[in-house]
Structure formats: C-alpha cells, structure tokens
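tool=predict chain=A
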Amino acid sequence: MVARTIEARILNDIGIKGVSIPDDVGAIDRLQAQLHDFVAGTVRGELAGRLSGVESLSDRAVVGAANGIYEAAFEMLAILGDDA
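tool=predict ok
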C-alpha cells in the first residue's frame, strides 16, 4: 500500500513538475513498470527490518521514509523519461 501511494503521488506530480515522458505507449508502459519495481523494492528495503514493530513506528518515521523514497523515485523517473 505504501508503494502504491508513492507511485500515485509521482504520477500525479508528473504533469505539475513537467517531467518529460515518451510519446510511445510501449515506452511509457516500460517506464511505469520500472517505476513500480523501484518503488516497491525500495519500500521493502526501507521497511523490511521494521515490519515486526510497525505499530510502534511513528507517523513521522513513516512519512519521512515515504518522502525519501518519493524523491529518489521521482529523480529516477525524470532521468529515465529524459533518456527515453
């Protein structure tokens, strides 16, 4: 759920922040798949060691982790979009 929330935030911000995306639908599908894999993998990596105590995580810790993942994923998407 965290990964999908971050992905939705990124997709929403694409138009607002003016990220270039390819015109080819196939390239867009590949870009979205790469984004999903990156975000899901990063969320797993960030939260894997904390899941046993997830109820003890503060909102601030979760939001901080999500914001960091969002920033890294958005930067990766901008680079991939420009290269496509």
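The chain has a mean pLDDT of 81. Residues 2-83 form one domain.
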